[in-house]
């Protein structure tokens, strides 16, 4: 068995799988069994002699200038990486007098003969990696304006090495285009994780602050390696206790671990905290006592955590308290908190995910209707955090119409890395492609060529604050994300937060090489599957612009029949509106909700007409007859069935491709991914069968010949119950 | 730095701990950083040349006879162990024609010249390890009556090697003295673990049955390596859903993983399941429809899991339903379930942990009063599972008086490995010493020399069924038990379940050698600390026979002032009865509850008189004046203070000893244990201060000079709140 990896430190045998596997084992005892904990920082030994020789030369004489916790972290990572990749114990000097093969120093600390003129400008977090020829000898330079820049540069250098890239004449100059690159943890103080599918929260609040789990350090390493520079450690459905001294001490311990890695800690602020913590009888943002309470609270926190990032707030949404409870508005609430943290350099991220009191209003328009009128009224240290689409992290949504509609307000992007609506941690879905699809969507406002990426990167408004947040898919599972491929979504989010125009192919290729093997046979085989995997759940869950058809509460599996919830816009029938006449949500100006007008006129015009609406969004904007003809000349009904089948078949194909790659992957991770792909294949069929059987009750048409006929009837699929599906909000349990 | 272990596969550096540590790292980059996942199955490379040569010779020519999933598991473990300890790839043959250096075969498969006459008899799970000289060549033989016996023997051989024991002329013959050696998991279907302090449940019910976590396999390996042969995977506070086909399919997947390792799966049966699952309107055990429901349910389960072990039941206790809800008794309930599983060879474990409806009754007598009269009435496939003491897993309790009082009933021991009352997973406490203290306690009935161990091993009653259960301390934490030393309690429980007379020193030494290093410097230094650690929490929490003084609900930290709960016998004041006149629970016949009479007359006589009551149980049986003189001539009050202080000081000493062993332990585990010891030291002082300040309100006496005066006042300790302490039962949250 051609296994490119190394010596085992774990038994990898599954006896219950019988003798065949046992014989396999006999021949592969030395196969390095991995559990996925090391993420993309595996630093496995480089077996390519030429490459290893080149890297070893560059590592023969190393200078790292400076001395700070960040520099120490840099040195540690460098030594660990070089030691494991090259099997050497590198010696690192800090003196400047000699000539080195590798120099890592801020620009001000570079030797005189180190010439970086001609390289692009970099900002304070950016870095340069370049080789220079000094009297015949090539040397490698990593430089930056700051220690953090050097850390990012060093991580990048180690990643280039893991990818076994030729470093001769390398020239890299990279700066992040977005200031705030944050993870949002929907983690509760009891260690449950709302919409978490990778075990319990990694935050062990009971043992903090005294006990520092190695995971906290490795979490910081992993995030710094992809440029993430902030983390909101608590759930947006917030608990006021996190603001008490008992818990702030624990948060401080985390902040101390993360600081050397350039990561700031943020907290969610429960708006009613002044009341719940027993100090006041109101949380009215215009009440001076309330304002003073938050000022004092901010001082308490900053006394412990001088570089505390600030607050993330979910207010007046899904039962969370907010300014409206006191007859005030979002501007009043956000600006009060902003004033409290401003003296300390903190910020407030105010979420736009709100519900209209008018349950009849089109769900897709509610946030826009409420927030757009406030454009320009928020304090300068406030960002409004907007989900990528107007509904709620569906497999595919058009971009959120607020992007482009609030030119005087810094809008922060909120993506969901955890797969609440995309198969939990059992489905392989490459989300960076979803993220970039949104980032590259043209908003047509303020300018004709403006894209969502330009809005959040501030290149349009030139605002000081820019940000992108990803709802983390991280938990206590040994492999962090439940599914090994969930790591790719964490990795890719970081890369796109650093540069929204980072190539998807490159993200996928880098991650595959570092996570498994740079062997081109492996990479070239699975790279296309990974890129296509983003479209698969769209096809087998919600094709052609359908959305919000999952089962209620836990959101696991199909539930197009869900029709009875406390709000109509929490049901499935509200969104697909299937009936005898057809299917889809009419958001046109002529006969529908008019939500198309939330977009720029150019887009509104396109979306207002089925003929000019992109087919992948057709039923998002239009209610169309089952017999409506699509571009391929087939009926909408046939196309639905074909799309569902296509999604299933593509997963089946991906599964077969994975099986063919057995020789390139260690036993444990190969088996884990294989089991997950089998579950995904089974559940893709489940979605197809449940949805098509349900819709057939309205269409009353035969399934298209391309579609495999369901082997069970609708009542079976309706009967399935999952009382303990993970990630559900306790209060909904 | 003299570090006896090997190459790193993980960054182990804590930059926030600053430069000193960083310099340490420079010199120890090759230190093998371990996360504790491998437990005592690390199989680290043996550097002692002589020993490795001897083992390599024995491994040069190996025969393993037979072919079964168990034999495959045996071969896998043998190859993994030899490969890692000796850095060889062993070749294993199954043919019998040649002469081998190591032969692993059942007695019936041994070569004719393999003579085991003269070795002690072994039972079906026992094994023999011996060397034999065959024409000048020494060979090693592992033999047994069954494949499982061979697996146990092979695990034991690998453990001898990890301890670097000389195998020349080795002769081992070992058989388990107790049939049922079980773990009890108090794991809920939502992955919370009642009284669990090591993260979420390792059972990922959502991904079962399709997804087999590597943990399930390694869990089976670890248990088999110490002889555990059964596991109850669900909480005794039971959920009827586990009995539905949807979940039985998941349990079957676990059973299939565990079977090759000789581990049977058991479930907790919720007594009201026939009603809760919607099939019947009663669960009356004498109702034929109810009996039939359980018969059908048992058939369902055994169709999926032919070797299903049976049911564990908590009935009519702490709100759990039971036969008394229908006017029936424990015998009626247990025998009904027993009848359902009997045709399939299953058993019922019926817990004796019950509460008397009469809240005035002495808590210590309630189980005895209720169960002893039933002696001889239970069906032959029922065991009554009794906690080690009459209250509830306190740091020290006298043995449970039911042991010895029910000669016609198989009593199964229930120990708690998880540290509900012993510092959660932050305190280092060597529980095997607590376990053996109970097992070696003399019951004086039925015979004068009978010990608890003899009762549960059945050597008195000769009953067919014997068993010992340990409430697991296992969770999803990477190191399984939260605290590395928690692994020693899992390990030691297994060893004592196999043989209640196994030497504690040997358990401690074996575990230290395999978990860290066989280096005598290390082992000899920490072995005494480990053995003494059992007494420390007794001293700093509940000295001199005090009990049940923890905070309410979560049981974390001291709460001697707890006085207001829904039952008086859930409070602390009920148990310590401190007042101006003195402290302690009077259980004498003369002035007290008379609970001493639950014991044999010889013991009742001893316990009835403070002068003849062992001092470590003094306040368990007597309420004594603060000025009562103990053997050392000092007052009870002074002795209390001295004991509390002693516990604190001993933890401080253990902490210093650990620091001195830095050179022998890898960075990650050394730091983890150091942080935990610091927390334990802090919390020991907390217990001492809170309890002594509280009791001083009654004694009104000055603290003894030996005792460090508390630095805070009582109101501070009373004010501490821990709303999200782990392990609490959700319904109490």
Automatic annotation (TrEMBL), chains A, B:
The active site is at residues 318, 392, 420. Keywords: Carbohydrate metabolism, Glycosidase, Hydrolase, Polysaccharide degradation, Xylan degradation. The keyword Hydrolase applies. Residues 161-480 form the Glycosyl hydrolase family 67 catalytic domain. Residues 481-705 form the Glycosyl hydrolase family 67 C-terminal domain. Its EC number is 3.2.1.131. GO terms for biological process: xylan catabolic process. One of its GO terms (cellular component) is extracellular region. Residues 39-157 form the Alpha glucuronidase N-terminal domain. It comes from the Bacteria. It catalyses: Hydrolysis of (1->2)-alpha-D-(4-O-methyl)glucuronosyl links in the main chain of hardwood xylans. SUPFAM superfamilies: (Trans)glycosidases (SSF51445), beta-N-acetylhexosaminidase-like domain (SSF55545). GO terms for molecular function: alpha-glucuronidase activity; xylan alpha-1,2-glucuronosidase activity. Pfam families: Glyco_hydro_67C, Glyco_hydro_67M, Glyco_hydro_67N. The keyword Hydrolase applies. Belongs to the glycosyl hydrolase 67 family. Homodimer. This is Xylan alpha-1,2-glucuronidase.
């Amino acid at each position: 068995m051609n296994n490119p990896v190394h010596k085992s430190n774990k038994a990898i045998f599954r006896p219950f799988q019988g003798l065949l596997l046992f014989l396999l084992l006999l021949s592969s005892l030395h196969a390095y069994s991995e559990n996925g904990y090391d993420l993309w920082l595996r630093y496995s030994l480089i077996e390519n002699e030429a490459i290893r020789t080149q890297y070893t030369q560059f590592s023969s004489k190393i200078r790292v200038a400076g001395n700070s916790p960040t520099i120490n972290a840099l040195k540690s990572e460098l030594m660990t990486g070089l030691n494991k990749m090259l099997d050497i114990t590198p010696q690192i000097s800090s003196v400047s007098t000699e000539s080195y093969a590798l120099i890592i120093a801020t620009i001000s600390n570079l030797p005189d003969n180190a010439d970086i003129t001609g390289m692009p400008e970099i900002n304070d977090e950016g870095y340069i990696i370049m080789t220079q020829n000094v009297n015949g000898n090539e040397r490698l330079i990593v430089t930056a304006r700051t220690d953090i820049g050097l850390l990012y540069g060093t991580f990048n250098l180690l990643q280039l090495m893991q990818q076994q890239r030729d470093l001769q004449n390398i020239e890299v100059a990279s700066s992040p285009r977005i200031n705030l690159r944050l993870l949002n943890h929907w983690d509760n103080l009891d260690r449950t994780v709302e919409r978490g599918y990778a075990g319990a929260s990694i935050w062990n609040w009971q043992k903090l602050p005294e006990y520092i789990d190695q995971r906290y350090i490795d979490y910081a390493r992993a995030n710094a390696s992809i440029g993430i520079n902030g983390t909101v450690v608590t759930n947006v459905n917030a608990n006021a206790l996190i603001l008490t001294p008992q818990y702030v001490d624990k948060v401080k311990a985390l902040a101390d671990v993360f600081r050397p890695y350039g990561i700031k800690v943020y907290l969610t602020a429960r708006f009613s905290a002044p009341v719940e913590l027993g100090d006041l009888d109101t949380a009215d943002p215009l009440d001076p006592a309330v304002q003073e309470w938050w000022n004092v609270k901010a001082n308490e926190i900053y006394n412990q955590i001088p570089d505390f990032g600030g607050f993330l707030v979910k207010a007046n949404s899904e039962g969370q308290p907010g300014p409206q409870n006191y007859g005030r508005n979002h501007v009043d609430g956000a600006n009060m908190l902003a004033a409290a943290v401003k003296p300390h350099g903190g910020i407030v991220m105010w979420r736009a995910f709100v519900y209209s009191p008018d349950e009849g209003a089109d769900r897709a328009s509610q946030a826009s209707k409420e927030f757009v009128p406030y454009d320009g009224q928020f304090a300068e240290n406030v960002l409004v955090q907007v989900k990528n689409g107007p509904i709620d992290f569906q497999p595919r949504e058009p971009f959120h119409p607020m992007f482009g509609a609030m030119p005087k307000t810094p809008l922060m992007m909120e993506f969901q890395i955890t797969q609440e609506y995309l198969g939990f941690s059992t489905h392989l879905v490459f989300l960076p492609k979803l993220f970039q699809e949104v980032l590259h969507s043209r908003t047509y406002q303020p300018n004709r060529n403006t894209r969502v990426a330009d809005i959040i990167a501030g290149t349009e408004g030139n605002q000081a604050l820019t940000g992108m947040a990803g709802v983390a898919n991280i938990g206590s599972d040994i492999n962090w994300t439940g599914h090994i491929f969930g790591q790719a979504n964490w990795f890719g989010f970081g890369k796109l937060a650093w540069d929204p125009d980072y190539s998807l192919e490159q993200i996928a290729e880098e991650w595959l090489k570092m996570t498994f093997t740079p062997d081109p046979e492996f990479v070239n085989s699975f790279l296309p599957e990974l890129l296509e995997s983003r479209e698969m759940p769209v096809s087998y869950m919600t094709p052609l612009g359908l959305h919000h058809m999952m089962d209620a509460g836990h959101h696991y599996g199909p539930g197009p029949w869900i029709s009875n919830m406390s709000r109509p816009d929490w049901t499935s029938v509200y969104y697909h509106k299937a009936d005898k006449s057809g299917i889809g949500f009419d958001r046109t100006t002529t006969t529908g909700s008019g939500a198309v007008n939330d977009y720029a006129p150019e887009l509104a015009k396109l979306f207002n007409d089925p003929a000019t609406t992109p087919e992948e969004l057709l039923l998002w904007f239009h209610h169309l007859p089952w017999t409506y003809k699509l571009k391929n000349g087939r009926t909408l009904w046939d196309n639905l069935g074909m799309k569902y089948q296509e999604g299933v078949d593509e997963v089946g194909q991906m599964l077969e491709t994975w099986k063919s790659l057995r020789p390139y992957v260690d036993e444990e991770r190969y088996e884990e991914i294989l089991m997950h792909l089998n579950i995904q294949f089974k559940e893709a069929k489940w979605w197809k069968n449940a949805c098509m059987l349900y819709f057939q009750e309205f269409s009353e048409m035969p399934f298209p010949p391309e579609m495999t006929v369901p082997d069970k009837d609708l009542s079976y699929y309706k009967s399935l119950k999952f009382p303990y599906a993970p990630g559900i909000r306790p209060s909904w349990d």
